[in-house]
Specification:
Blueprint lengths: L1 H75 L5 H36 L17 H14 L21
Length: about 170
């Protein structure tokens, strides 16, 4: 009987040692997992601290940019946007082209009237016409006399009485 009891005790001790060995292995495994998780936690904490520092830097940069925007807006408050300037310039250009066209049309009409007044049959007779010999000298002299004459310019509203060929009616 003793041997059966001793065998059972022996068996119980072996089972206990085996369980102790399993527990030791499990404990070692848990310690390794704990160390691994602790290093992961440390990496996560380091990453969080870096993200917080980066977040703080970005907030500071945002504040500086907002201040720059506000100061720029204050400086530009009295300035006119380019789109508005471009519209005004386009309008002024159109007005200038129209005025220039009217000016040159008026000059052309005046020159046509002056030239037409020197044509035969216009009712204007100059004594020196008979003295001139040839069309070449007459054209040059006529232009000189036109530039020296003091013919008053008609006002812009005064309609010109000319026919289809530009001569006075």
């Amino acid at each position: 009987m003793m041997s059966i009891v001793e065998e059972e005790i022996q068996k119980a001790q072996e089972e206990r040692e085996e369980e102790g060995h399993k527990h030791c292995q499990l404990l070692e495994q848990l310690k390794a997992e704990k160390a691994d998780e602790a290093s992961k936690l440390q990496l996560a904490i380091t990453a969080r601290d870096a993200a917080l520092a980066d977040n703080q830097r970005v907030r500071h940069d945002i504040c500086e940019l907002q201040q720059q925007i506000e100061s720029t807006n204050a400086a530009l408050q009295d300035q006119v946007p380019w789109n508005d300037i471009q519209l005004v310039l386009d309008q002024a250009h159109g007005d200038m082209v129209s005025t220039t066209t009217r000016f040159w049309n008026t000059i052309d009409a005046l020159q046509n009237r002056r030239l037409a007044s020197y044509l035969p049959g216009s009712g204007v007779v100059h004594a020196d016409w008979a003295e001139r010999s040839g069309p070449a000298t007459q054209g040059h002299d006529v232009l000189l006399s036109l530039s020296e004459s003091n013919v008053p310019l008609p006002s812009q509203q005064e309609p010109s009485a000319t026919n289809q060929h530009g001569s006075l009616v």
